[in-house]
Specification:
Strands 1, 2, 3, 4, 5, 6, 7 and 8 form an eight-stranded mixed β-sheet that branches. With 148 residues, the protein is an alpha+beta fold. The N terminus and C terminus are likely disordered.
Length: 148
């Protein structure tokens, strides 16, 4: 998978109203952010849990440069995208492409909640929070590298 920054099912399926604001929210104070947020989503959940198991195209994860506010809580946003060939060509006849978002995931700044957006009905549901297991793996890896 390719990691990038862009600007702007397991667990509880309780629906959450996605009333995200458009204000720019810096993510410096988030417990998990940047490439770590992508790694967390990609390595902590299966494609089926992420709703990506029916995707027949290669997808990549990207992270929003700003956080989002959902119901008064701050979240880091990670998306799964595919590259789609457009019907339009450039003036010199070259194909054009666009990115299509096929999955959206939100990690609370404090690391206690992970949400998945249903791309068909725009509803958010909670995923099982696996931050502690992910964090423990990172600590073990770091310690192993130091000992070697």
């Amino acid at each position: 998978m390719i990691c990038a920054v862009f600007t702007a099912c397991s667990g509880n399926t309780e629906e959450i109203d996605p009333t995200a604001t458009v204000a720019q929210i810096p993510t410096e104070e988030a417990k998990i952010k940047d490439a770590d947020a992508i790694s967390f989503i990609e390595n902590s959940y299966t494609p089926k849990e992420l709703g990506l198991d029916d995707t027949d195209k290669d997808y990549s994860f990207m992270i929003a440069s700003n956080g989002v506010d959902i119901d008064g809580e701050k979240y880091v946003k990670v998306v799964a995208n595919v590259i789609v060939k457009k019907d339009v060509t450039t003036e010199d006849g070259k194909d054009t492409f666009s990115m299509e978002t096929i999955g959206e995931y939100y990690i609370s700044f404090d690391g206690t909640k992970v949400l998945k957006k249903d791309m068909k009905n725009n509803k958010l549901s909670k995923l099982e929070n696996r931050y502690d297991a992910y964090s423990a793996k990172g600590d073990t890896t770091a310690q192993t590298q130091v000992d070697e």
